[in-house]
Every structure is written in C-alpha cells, then in structure tokens.
Amino acid sequence: MFKKIKKDRGNILLIFLIEFIISISLVLIAFFLDNYEIVHIYSIYVMLLYFILICFINIFLMSHFLNKAEKYLNRTDITIASIFGNEVAPVFEFGNIVILVYNEVEEIIWISQTTLLRKEDILGQKIYELIPKFDELSLMSNSKDVYVNLNGKTFQIEINIGMRVIYLKDTTSQVLQSEKMEMERPFIGHIVIDNYQDVYVSLQESSFVLHVSEVKELINNFAKKYNLFIRSYNNDSFLIIGEEENYLNIAKDKFSIMDEMREMAEKNDNPLTISIGIGKGNTTSILRTSELSYMALNMALSRGGDQVVINAFGKPLEYYGAKNEIKQTRSHVRGRVLAASLANLVKASKNVIITGHKNADFDAIGASLGIYAICKSLKANAYVLYEDDLIELYTKRAFKSTFTSSEISEMTISNQKALQIATEQTLLIIVDTHNKDMILLPKLVDICKDICVIDHHRKGDSFIDNPIFQYHEPQSSSASELVTELIFYQANKVNLSEDIANFLLAGMSLDTKFFKVGTSGKTFEMAMILKNYQASSEAVSDFFREEYEEKKLLSSIVNSATAIAVGIYMAKASEDDIITRTTLSKVADEILDIKGVQAVFVIGRTAKNQISISARSTPDFNVQLIMESLGGGGHFSKAATQIENTSVENAASALREKVKIYLRDGGRV
C-alpha cells in the first residue's frame, strides 16, 4: 500500500523536475532574445501563460495524490477497525495507549487515533527505523518493564509477533516521577575521626584542639558544599543525611574531602584521619538504611580507616580513599582482654582445630603453631590442620627440617581426620585470613559452632559471619605478631619452644621484608619477646635461603620486569614453570628495592590451574585495591591474588586493565 503512495509521490516529483527544467529553458530563451523587443514582449506573455498552466496542473496533481492516499488510509482503517472494534478507540486514548500494526515486510501500515504520536511521522516507516532494538524487545515482550523512547516520550512496549501488532503505553510522566523520587531518595552516613583518642593522649591540649578544629571545619564545609544535613553526636563522630542527587555529586568528585584531608595533614602536620560509611539504596525503611551505614562504617574502620565505604542495598561494597598506610593504634589493655577471652574459649571447648589459608606461608604456619602453644599451655586437645600439598614450598621445607616426624604427627591433623573429630563443640581458630573459601578446609566453618578469627589483612567483601572471637587488626604487620601478643598477655606463662618462636619470627620477617616495611613499635616489641624465647635471626635467615636453581629462577623473573606505567612494573614467570608464592614475593621485594619503582606486580603459575600475582608498593600507591579488584586482598603496600583456570598472559592483561583504571580514577578500581 505505502509502496504505491511512494511511487505516486515519486512520479509527482519527476513532473515537478521536468517543469523546473522547462521553466529554466524559457528564462534562458527570453534572455538571449532580449534584443528583439517584439519577441521579448511575446516571450513574457508565453512565460506567464506557462506558469498559470503549471499552477493548475500542480493543484490537480496534489489533489489527486491526497485523495488517493486518503482512500488507501481509509481502506486500512476500516479493515483494522473491523478487527478491534471502533468502540475501543476512546479507551485506548484515555489510557494513553497507542496501537501500531505492521505488515509482512515490517512496514507500519496503521496507527490508532492518538495525540501522542504524529501519524505522518509513523506510517510507512520500517519497524527497525522506528525501534532500532526491535528484535531484542520482541524477545522480552512478556516482561512488564520493557521501554522505548519515541519522539521524546517514554513508552512501555508489548509486541504480538503473531498478529504483527505493537502496543505502546505512554509512561513518560511515571518515568519522570520515578526519576524524581530516585533523586530524592535519602542516604545516611557517618563520619568518624579515626584516631581521635590516640592523638588526644599523645599531643598537648593546644595542638590537639587546633588539629581537631581544622578537621571539624573541613567536615562542616563538606556538608555545606553538598547541601547535607549534619549533626555531631560525639566528640569524634558526625551524622550526615542527604538525597541521592547530593550523593551523585559527591561521588562525581570522588569524595574529594579525603584528598583535602590529606593535603591538610601534609601542610599542617595534622595526624588525624577520617573514615566515612554511607548506607543507601532502594531499602524498605530508613532504619534499614541506617543499618547499612553502620555496616559501611565498621567495614571502613576494620580496614584501617582513612577511607570511605559505600554500602548500597543489594550491591557490592564500594571503596574510596585508603591512600595512606595504616597507623598503629592497638593498646596493651585490649591485648590483655583478648588474651583472656581466647583462653576462656579454649578451656570451654571439647577440642581445638587451628587452620591458616591455603598455600600456607611462614606467617600462617607460625601463627598456627603459636596458637597451638597457647592451647597446650591450657591443657587443651589442639591440632594444626596440615596438608603437604597445601603448604608453600619454603615453609614446608623449613617445617619438616625443624620438627621430627613424631612432633609433626603430634601437632598436626589431616583434613580427613579433622572432619572425623570436628563437632559443634569444637573450637575452630582461623589465622592469617578472614575468608572462608581461603582456609584449608572450608567445611569446618559449617560444622563448628564456635569460630575465632585472628587476622591482619584489610577486611574485604567476604568475611566469616559472626565469629565468637575476633582479633582483626589491619594495623598489625602479621598474624604472627598478633599471636605473639596473645601469648605474651596470657595469665599463665606459655611454654613456647625455640622452634615455634623461630616460626613466629619468620612469619613477622616475611610480612615485613625483614622489618623494612609495615612495622611499628609493637612489631619490634613482639620481636623482642620472641627473642626472649630464644628465637634466632640466623635460623630464620636459613629458612629463606635459596638453592641454586631457585636463585636462577628468581633472577630470570627479575630480568623479565617491564614498565606498564611510569614507576609501575610487571614481571612474569614462564607459562610452563610452577613456582612458589614465596618466590613471587621475593621477586616483588627485590624489584621494589630498585630506585624509581613505585609499584611492582609479579605473575606466575603456582599450581596447574592457578596463576598467582604478588604485589608490592611504596607507601603512596595502594596495591591492595588492585588486588581486591582481581579477587585477592592484603595490605596497602603488600597484597596478592590467585586466579583460577587462566594463563599468565591473560592474568597480565587483566592486571594492566585494572592498573589503567586505578591510575585513571585517581586510586580507585
């Protein structure tokens, strides 16, 4: 039908073109004959007569074309009306519903009477010109939430492919109202000065008041800038409330208050930092939003503070900030309280199973042995979970060379045996990780009712729910440091053997690069305590001594290092070599010692189906965020991840992309 109309339209255009050519020809003839006055006068008459004739012809053609098109449209209207019935037209108009019908060649041949769309803009169009994603929408036609935009309006669409009918319902006002409600949805946040009490104790009152005043002024200016409601409910705590539109503006600026806080700290030697937790999203009540904000704040604080955590309902946590290394804030009082609590739990349990993470290193094994020593001093039945193929090579070699077979048999238990003795009365103590999936035997978490977590890694999205005891300190250098503290504060002196003391010292040495990074006064204090138990630096050094082939491999990986950005390097082991995570970390430490290196990532295959990445950085680059984005974690300047079922090159490509995003977004992935 519309092909005939288009054909007629083309014929008329052709006639108009011929008329235009004749008109130009007559004008030219008149111009060339301008010297002959009589001819000139007659030519004017001829042209005038010609133009009058052209007007009558055009009026006739246009009238004929319009009548013909109207007959076509009326004929179609009658046919469609016979299907739907004329009486439904007012109902469709009242309900803001438009009906389109298309033919077998996907051309729209009819549109219901409506003021929402102009008929002349719709009729004759191909469906895919009007609705580009028609195929995708037709597959989703059973959904109630499929929308299209036509002529500046939003329509809910339903497609009946069999009848070749499209139903459109105008939802423009509802969508605008929904967007308005979304922008007005409230969020709740908490701002806390992280180290308020510690700075209060360490500074003179005048200096402390000055620093606090600067921070509070910064917080109030932040609230004023983004039109937030703010109230102080404690000396170091603030409540903020705003709308989604305010939050989007804050997020667009990437929580610039954190950068302003650091600039102020550098300029005025202000030791204070802040943490922010925000709860938001499509929650059922303001109370639920408040709970989300408290959870976000606790996560920010448990990760060491100096950062922002966004807890959006039904979505993964988002992190901003965390650009500074964590400061040590633990107190002796808390150490004593936690040591007593752990002792009480051990005494009340039927038996104790101690486990670290998979591919356990010196820190995981050292911390496990330290807890074992505490349990034995309390006369408890305790065992360290141990599997040969789940222990890192250097650690396994040192463990087997240090302890006799009978000692190992007495201290350790296999996964199979652990499942046999584990009950609800068993106390499960997890060290050097807080992730259920990373421990040697995740099933134990479901079996044991009472679970203790002792870890120093910054808390990620995955955390063991509701442990009965938790000593989670990202400020600490290592799990071995935390366990040494628990040993020191036990009410009854722990009989710690020299060999176990050596492993605890090895754990601290590994995670601090032999006390070069990530240390605090507490770290050296705990190392001195281990020295009192006859821990030997020479013995620890011997644990890490490399064989010739290992040294050769380490050197080859170091030589493979290439820059992926200014100051950021990546080294890769051969795809075919199976190497240890300790080797990867050694390579990373060695490259980081080179002048001009800000961060380094070392990639290698540590198992048949596993690629590991070890990351190290200076204090002004956060490798933890990058490793978390790849499924791992760790500390600000020392982190790692393991990726299953991939290749070294694919892992390298994924890493490059994450580093690119981190640099582009100013320290956020």
CATH superfamily of the largest domain: inorganic pyrophosphatase (n-terminal core)
The CATH topology label of the largest domain is inorganic pyrophosphatase (n-terminal core)
Strands of the widest sheet, in order across it, are: 7-8-6-9-10-11
**What is the number of domains?**
5
Q: Let me know the number of strands.
A: 23
Radius of gyration, Cα only, in angstroms?
Answer: 38 Å
Question: How much strand content do the residues show?
Answer: 15-25%
Shape: elongated
Low-confidence stretches: none
Structural class by sheet pairing and helices: alpha/beta
- CATH class of the largest domain, anyone? Alpha Beta
Kindly report the average pLDDT value.
81
* CATH architecture assignment name of the largest domain: Alpha-Beta Complex
The residue fraction in helices comes out at 40-55%
Distance between the termini: 57 Å
Major β-sheet, in short? 6 strands, mixed
Total of DSSP H or I helical runs spanning 4+ residues: 26
Architecture blueprint of SSEs:
Elements: H1 2-32, H2 37-84, H3 89-94, E1 97-102, E2 108-111, H4 119-122, H5 127-130, H6 134-139, E3 147-150, E4 153-160, E5 165-170, H7 172-183, E6 186-193, H8 196-202, H9 205-225, E7 229-234, E8 237-243, H10 244-252, H11 256-268, E9 274-280, H12 286-302, E10 307-312, E11 318-321, H13 332-348, E12 351-355, H14 362-377, E13 382-385, H15 393-402, H16 405-411, E14 412-413, H17 415-421, E15 426-431, H18 443-447, E16 450-455, E17 469-472, H19 479-488, H20 498-511, H21 521-532, H22 537-543, H23 548-559, E18 562-565, E19 568-572, H24 581-592, E20 599-607, E21 610-617, H25 623-629, E22 633-634, E23 638-644, H26 648-664
Parallel strand pairs: 9-10, 12-13, 12-15, 13-14, 15-16, 16-17, 19-20
Antiparallel strand pairs: 1-2, 1-5, 3-4, 4-5, 6-8, 6-9, 7-8, 10-11, 18-19, 20-21, 21-23, 22-23
Helix pairs in contact: 1-2, 9-11, 13-19, 14-19, 14-20, 19-20, 19-21, 20-21, 20-22, 23-24
